[in-house]
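Hello,

Our lab assistant flagged a job as stuck in the queue for most of the afternoon. It eventually completed. Since we weren't sure the result was trustworthy after the delay, we are filing this so someone can double-check. Below is the sequence as submitted and the structure that was eventually returned. Let us know if re-running is recommended.
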Amino acid sequence: MYKLIILGILILAGILSQISGLFQLSDLIVVARQYTDQWWLPIILVLLQTLLFTFAQAGSLFLWVAAALYPPVTATLILASGATLGGVSAYYFSAKLSETWVHRVENSHVYKVLHKQDNFFTLLAMRLMPAFPHSLINYSSGFLKTSLFHFVPAAFIGIGLKSYVYSKVIYQATSGAPLQELFDITTFGPLVLLSVIILAGVFAKYKYDQRRGISSE
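-- returned structure --
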């Protein structure tokens, strides 16, 4: 039971640190800017993201660092790689902490229903949704034993698309463009719309499968 409490505390701490702006981004960017010409800096940024995401901390803050230092494509690769590796690490960490409790509930109806929703498109939709806590996706996926064949590509593609959209705005802001565009609906609106469309498709398929299952009985 105490392991589940630890998981809950870590998820809550990660969400709160992301909301509260616990880390001083300006100081981090100033330090990192001195080493942008070094080949190892992107690797360090990926590893730092991996560490933070593993323990449900605000790895997403590196969006502001990578996007301010590198062109959008480079920043996107750094962010998608770090978040995906951190997601996989958090997945296994969560699975290890919850394995005893999962054995007790895996035959329950609720667990089976949630486990059936393990698919690429559901995970992709959640990754695309702006401000959706990645720690919640990572840890719940480990708890539900989500297929890594769905989890990994959904994380890389979803986070990659979202990172590219935001990275373009932040990178342009370093050249004098207004940063307010980041909070404009024309920036995050398409991400929300795509996420909603995907979820609607997943829900429609779920209802269709339900009806087909009932009719076959």
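-- support follow-up --
The delay was a queue issue, not a problem with the job. The result is valid. The chain has a mean pLDDT of 81. Residues 72-105 form the longest helix (34 residues).
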